[in-house]
């Protein structure tokens, strides 16, 4: 395995993904991890990530010089490269004005004799983001890349297998960036590139079988990608010893509950339990219109229904969750400002004592989870399902949620999805859905005045959902969606399109 040592840069997960794309298993660890732990893990290579601006900032992370004595190949990226230079006695010159800064695409000259750049062009674009720069490399190092501004865009000391790049090879804008990472992994670290999803499935299934033995395992299935893939994997390992509990709170998209039930009962060997509790949820939501209050009610109600069921019948054996790798890394981060409450992870009540918690996808990124799902035979629709908020349509019916409003929204949303699928536009969108703002407007149908509901269409493109752009859906598609919704969905007489990016808007309306 390779270790990505996290110095707080923004592309840390991207580095890990790129490494895995080279079929090399890697993990991200905080820079504070002890040398003993690193020795114990015995990685084939270490990558230092980028990080805060200057090695001279008191608060910026540093690392013990001893790490360079372990005889493990190291690649430092951006701040990681400066840290390597600084720690080993080179000179990092602090930025006093903007003359040493480089941001964005930068023409770079590479020494193709260096093992990292064998597959790069002599001159190519790299992605830079730095202020300080390395002015003198440490003893034993040579400069292997330069730019017009930066005297040391890369450096290396092949005898000690130490390499550094000032730019970001993990970012797509760096031409041949992935080749550079691959050269480090294969040619310097000697990785063979054997990390494959097939072997992941085989070894995980074997591990699960051994761990679970003849005990039971229960999983909360939401119908989302992660819990579905976890269910499929567990089903392959232990079949009917697996119970999947699926809470249908009536706030799913049209026919979604039935689709999930059919998929798992027909295609997979397991004990599938569906709890239909639309009425309970709606009665708890009666008269409530404040978004956070609604989220809280839905979250609490879900928690009660789900755990009561488990307490009744399945409160022993193991508990499984579809936690994936980014969930684990993010949960270690500080408190970001709370914009809205997301209910993703389920907490086990104290009175239920399982043998243990099983998280079979805990080392995978989302795209890897999808590959596993496809290999296990989950339907395309489930594997490529868009993100769907835990509180479901409860946060897309703005204001008070009623059965009638949910029905209107489900019908409108189904038409939107059908039209987007038909024209092939769906796959270009990160997320799209209908919203029922709870606004009535005047219209005219036939010769009569109408006073009916407004439906809003929301569609965004984004890489990470932290920021998002509103999608530029062609007018003719929007027109078709609008006229179908107005003609086919009773009580809707107007459709609008949301053209707000995030920020300042959020993706969901509540
Ligand atoms: P916002 O509205 O915060 O949404 O810009 C960003 C992404 O998160 C999804 N979302 C949720 N996902 N539980 C979830 O699992 C939630 O409570 C929740 N609220 C929003 C949203 O659909 C979008 O993909």
TrEMBL record:
Q: Which Pfam families match?
A: GATase, GMP_synt_C, NAD_synthase
Residues in GMPS ATP-PPase domain copies: 195-385
So what EC number does this one have? 6.3.5.2
Stored SUPFAM superfamilies: Adenine nucleotide alpha hydrolases-like (SSF52402), Class I glutamine amidotransferase-like (SSF52317), GMP synthetase C-terminal dimerisation domain (SSF54810)
Domain of life of the organism in this record?
Bacteria
Residues that hold ATP according to the record: 222-228
- Active site feature: 78, 168, 170
Recorded hits in CDD domains, A to Z, give: GATase1_GMP_Synthase, GMP_synthase_C
**What is annotated about its quaternary structure and interactions?**
Homodimer.
What does the protein in this record do? Catalyzes the synthesis of GMP from XMP.
- HAMAP family named in the record: GMP_synthase
Q: Specify the protein name.
A: GMP synthase [glutamine-hydrolyzing]
Tell me what organism the protein belongs to: Ruminococcus bromii
Upper lineage is:
Bacteria, Bacillati, Bacillota, Clostridia, Eubacteriales
User: Gene encoding this polypeptide?
Assistant: guaA
């Amino acid at each position: 395995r390779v270790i990505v040592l996290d110095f707080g840069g923004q592309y840390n997960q991207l580095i890990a993904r790129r490494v895995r794309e080279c079929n090399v298993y890697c993990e991200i660890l905080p820079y504070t991890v002890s040398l003993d732990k690193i020795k114990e893990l015995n990685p084939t290579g270490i990558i230092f990530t980028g990080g805060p601006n200057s090695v001279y900032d008191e608060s910026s992370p540093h690392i013990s010089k001893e790490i360079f004595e372990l005889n493990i190949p190291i690649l430092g990226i951006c701040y990681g490269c400066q840290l390597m230079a600084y720690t080993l006695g080179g000179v990092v010159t602090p930025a006093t004005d903007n003359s040493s800064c480089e941001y964005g695409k930068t023409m770079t000259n590479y020494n193709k004799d260096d093992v990292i750049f064998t597959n790069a062009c002599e001159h190519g674009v790299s992605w830079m983001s730095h202020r300080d720069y390395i002015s003198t490399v440490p003893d034993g190092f040579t400069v292997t890349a330069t730019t017009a501004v930066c005297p040391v865009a890369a450096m290396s000391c092949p005898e000690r297998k130490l390499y550094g790049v000032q730019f970001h090879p993990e970012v797509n804008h760096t031409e041949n960036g992935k080749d550079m990472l691959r050269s480090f992994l294969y040619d310097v670290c000697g990785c063979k590139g054997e990390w494959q999803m097939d072997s992941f499935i085989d070894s995980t299934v074997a591990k699960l079988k051994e761990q679970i033995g003849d005990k039971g395992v229960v999983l909360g299935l939401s119908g989302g990608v992660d819990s579905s893939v976890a269910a499929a994997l567990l089903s392959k390992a232990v079949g009917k010893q697996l119970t999947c509990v699926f809470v249908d709170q009536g706030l799913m998209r049209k026919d979604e509950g039935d689709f999930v039930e059919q998929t798992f009962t027909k295609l997979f060997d397991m004990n599938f339990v569906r709890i239909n509790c639309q009425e309970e949820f709606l009665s708890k939501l009666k008269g409530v219109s404040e978004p956070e209050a609604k989220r809280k009610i839905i979250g609490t109600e879900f928690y009660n229904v789900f755990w009561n069921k488990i307490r009744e019948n399945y409160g022993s054996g193991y508990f499984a969750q579809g936690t994936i790798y980014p969930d684990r890394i993010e949960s270690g981060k500080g408190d970001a400002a709370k914009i809205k409450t997301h209910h993703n992870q389920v907490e086990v009540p104290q009175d239920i004592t399982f043998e243990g918690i099983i998280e079979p996808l805990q080392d995978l990124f989302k795209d890897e989870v999808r590959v596993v799902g496809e290999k296990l035979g989950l339907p395309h629709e489930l594997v490529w399902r868009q993100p769907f908020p835990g509180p479901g349509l409860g946060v897309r019916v703005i204001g008070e949620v009623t059965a009638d409003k949910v029905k209107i929204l489900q019908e409108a949303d189904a038409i939107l999805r059908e039209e987007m699928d038909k024209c092939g536009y769906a796959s270009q969108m990160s997320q799209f859905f209908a919203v029922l703002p709870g606004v009535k407007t005047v219209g005219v149908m036939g010769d009569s005045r109408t006073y009916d509901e407004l439906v809003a269409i929301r569609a965004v493109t984004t890489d990470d959902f932290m920021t998002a752009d509103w999608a530029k859906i062609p007018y003719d598609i929007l027109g078709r969606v609008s006229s179908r919704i107005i003609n086919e969905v009773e009580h809707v007489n107007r459709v609008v399109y949301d053209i707000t990016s995030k920020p300042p808007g959020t993706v969901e309306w509540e």
